[in-house]
Amino acid sequence: MIVGRNGAGKSSLLRMIAGLICISAGRLELTGGEVDITLPEQTHYLGHLDALKPSLSVRENLRFWADYLGDSGSAIESALAVVDMVPLADLPAAYLSAGQRRRLSIARLVAVPRPLWLLDEPTSALDVSSQDRLAGLMRHHLAGGGIILAATHGPIGLENARELRMGPL
């Protein structure tokens, strides 16, 4: 786990790893990852924007992402439960608060397993309970051999995170 703090470019680095920005020189690869698929196909990117369609329900948004990411969607209900969104599953995403939108985006990490999580300010808009829940999800992901690269301005609840400072100190 590496946490980038207090520097310009950390969001761009995450987007580059996710394949959203072209790399001008060199290459990125995930050692130990699946050789037949690209690095972006092995990652989840959770950015500032929650990438939700307002007219779709909570469940429909999560199903869309499961389909788009090539998963059967069998873990949608359990992912909603993990982020405490089951009571809101049929509500259109347009009615969600910022914290609820973020929790729905986090559910995507659980619904479609991928080895590398790229998280840009992952605790943004989350209350303390949801931050604790996210920290538990991150610990579980790491314990299962996953990798997390997070850009953050504050603590994210992981005790043994290694820090990479980008930009001037």
Topology pattern, helix = H, strand = E:
EHEHHHEHEE
CATH H-tier superfamily: P-loop containing nucleotide triphosphate hydrolases
Which CATH class is shown? Alpha Beta
Overall pLDDT, averaged?
A: 87
Structural class: alpha/beta
Say what the CATH topology is: Rossmann fold
Question: How many domains, as an integer?
Answer: 1
What proportion of the residues is helical, as a percent range? 25-40%
Residue fraction in strands:
5-15%
Strand count: 5
- Tally of helical segments: 5
CATH architect. name: 3-Layer(aba) Sandwich
Q: What is the radius of gyration computed over CA atoms, rounded to a whole number of angstroms?
A: 16 Å
Q: Major beta sheet, specifics?
A: 5 strands, parallel
Strand line-up in the sheet with most strands: 2-3-4-1-5
Low confidence ranges:
1-8
Q: What would you call the shape?
A: globular
Distance between the termini: 20 Å
Descriptive notes:
- The chain has about 170 residues and is α/β, with parallel strands linked by helices.
- It has one domain: 3-Layer(aba) Sandwich (Rossmann fold), CATH 3.40.50.
- Helix content is about 35%, strand content about 15%.
- It contains five helices and five strands.
- It has helices spanning about 10-15, 60-70, 75-80, 100-110, 130-145, and strands spanning about 1-5, 45, 115-120, 145-150, 160-165.
- The protein has a five-stranded parallel beta sheet, with helices on both faces.
- Strand 3 (about 115-120), helix 5 and strand 4 form a beta-alpha-beta unit.
- The longest helix is centred in the last third of the chain and has 16 residues, at about 130-145.
- Residues about 1-10 have low confidence and may be disordered.
